[in-house]
Amino acid sequence: MTSQATTRRRQTCANQLVEPHKPHVSFSGLNKFGVYFVSLLLLSCNPLDQNSKSSPTPSDTASETSQQQITSAANGPTTTTVTPPNVNTAPAAFTPTLSNTSPKVGDTVSCNGTTNDAEGDTLSYTYQWYANGANIAGATNASYTVLPAQAHATDFKCIKTASDGNSGSTIGTSAVASVINTAPVAFTPTLSNTAPKVGDSVSCNGTTNDADGDTLSYTYQWYANGANIAGATNASYTVLPAQAHATDFKCIKTASDGNSGTVIGTSAVASVGNTAPAAFTPTLSNTAPKVGDSVSCNGTTTDADGDTLSYTYQWYANGANIAGATNASYTVLPAQAHATDLKCI
Question: What is the pTM (predicted TM-score) of this model?
């Protein structure tokens, strides 16, 4: 439309009432695809009855302006789509979950759960594991194996961030979990002497470790003859006659981590060996006997095990045992006259 034509149009319509279907601009907003659009409806300026006294309105002026700006106007509506700057929607809020809500040191825990994006963007995820009031350095994978540094933590959790690739992101934080205590590792203590005798001191050896890194303490109980030995609660024990010949002598050692975690270790059993009677030297009741004198072999000994002792005898003279002389006393015979080595065994 030329400038001259525009001038004539303005003159023609200047003193006439423009009918309701005048040129106008209609904004319709976002469509279902998230795109803004503008509808421009352009109609010709048709005068009403000449007897109408209505004056031109601001809308008439706007209509004329629209006609001036758009050089081709049809009698039908024309729709033009205008795309505004992209407005991204962040992924929906979400709360990830832990695959194990009561983990122990050494357990592998996964950070599960996803979210969605209103625009259908493909989402990617990043991770950060957290405990003891701070992020765990380097713990940025979807799963994490709990270390001793997190032992007994009460705020173990994962932080998962969903990103849509268009600068939109949403952070989800799991509920916190407590890292529960791990008892000390099972172990078997050993005896320092596996064939002790009464009077021997035996130690209960061996230690264990704790996955949490807790400092361990130990308690002891010695056992024999089917029962705990009263008061025998030290790391070593001196075998008493009461345990003589026991075939189930052992130690029971308990490791405690200070966090209600314990493990009991029991040694292999040992048999308490027999102890021979103590050495002794019997004495003769007459150290200068004559033929016909009765001589006794006196003296006793002791037994560490407390065993009841019995005695046997053998008389000896002239460099040999005297045949049949096996009693506690002996009457010297002529065969031993002048013997210089009469003795009792």
Answer: 0.68
